Here is the input.
Amino acid sequence: MTQTELLNFIKEHSIKKILVIQTAFIGDVVLTTPMLKEIKKSYPDIKLSVLVKPEAKQILEPLNFVDDIIVIDKNNRHKYWGMLKIIQHIRNQKFDIILSPHQSFRTGLIVYFSQAPIRVGYNTASFSFAYNLKLQRTNKHEIHRLLDFLKDSICPNLSHYPNAPILEETESSKKKAKDLIKDFATSPVAFACSSIWPTKRWTPWGFAELAGLVVESYKSPVILIGSKGDYELSEYILQYAKHILPKHIHNQIYNFCGKTDLITLYSLLKRCKFLVSNDSAPVHFGCAAHIPVIAIFGPTTKDLGYAPICDNSRVVEIEGLYCRPCGTHGGKKCPEKHFRCMKEITPRMVMEKIKEVYNLGNLYGN
Here is the structure.
C-alpha cells in the first residue's frame, strides 16, 4: 500500500476508529502526546484510542484529545496466553486504522491479528509484514519523528511541529503537589537522579555536590524526585551530602522519591524553578511543564532523538568520547569498564548549563 492508496481509502470509507500503539517506556508515551493531538485535530470526529502499559494510563486520562485508553499488562494479565485476550479485545473494537510507532515483535503480533484494514508501522519493525503501509524512520527528535510518521501516512498536510510534549494537571495532582512543598519559602529545584538503566545515572557524589551549589547559590531547596524504587539511591545521595556539605546546606535537600504518582510529578515540576535529570522520563515531564531542563547524557547521545528540545533546555555531556553512544538505552555496566561518560561530568559543568537557562548570577565570582 502507498500513502496515496491509504488516503483514497480514507476518502472512500467512513473512518470512525483509530488506534495508536505505544507500549514502550513512560518517556516514550509522553513524547507521543503531540502526535495524538495532531491526529485528533486532523480527524476530530473519530474515536482515538491508545494502547499503553498500565503505568501510562494516568498521564493520558486528563488529555481531552484521547478518547479511550486500552491497557496491556505485559508482565501479568496479558503475559504469554494472556496475549490472546488483548488481541481479541482489539479485534472486537473493529479499528479502521492502527498506527504503531512501537517496533516490538509483540506489537507486530497484535497488529497482524487485529483485522484492521489499515496498519501503519516502520519498515524496520519486528514482524514488519503485519503492516500494509511501511514507513522509513526519520533521523530526528522523537517528537518530530512521530509527526513525520503522521505526515507520511494519514496527515499529509501536517505543518505544526512543536518542541514539547503535552500533559495536563488534575485538581487532585495540583493539591498533592502544593501540599508537598507548602512549607518551602521558595520554589524548589528538582533533581531526578535515577534511571532504569544504571549507566544512565550520573554519580551520586556529583548530584550531592551539585545540590550544595544550588542551595548555596540560589537559596532554594533541592528535592530528589523519583519512584519508590529510587528512594534508596536518593538516600545514598543524601548521606553523601551530609559528609561533604555544611548542615545548613544539606538540611535543604529532601528525598521526595515515592511521594508522587506520575501526574502529581508533573504538577510538582510545574512548581519547580528548574529540573536537573539523567536521560530518563522526568526530562520529558519537565519539558511538558515548561520549566528549564538540564539533562545529563552519558552512554546515550542527543542524536538518538530523546534529548530535550524545548527552548529552555540544555544537555550536559562529554563530547567526542570514542565509545558514545554504547547503545540505544545504556546498559547495566560500562562495556569499556571506565564509565568516563559520567565520571568526567563535573558539578561545575552542570552549573554552567544551569546558568545558560536560568539566570543564577555569577556563581563562581568570575
Summary: The chain is about 35% helix and 15% strand. The longest helix spans residues 26-42.
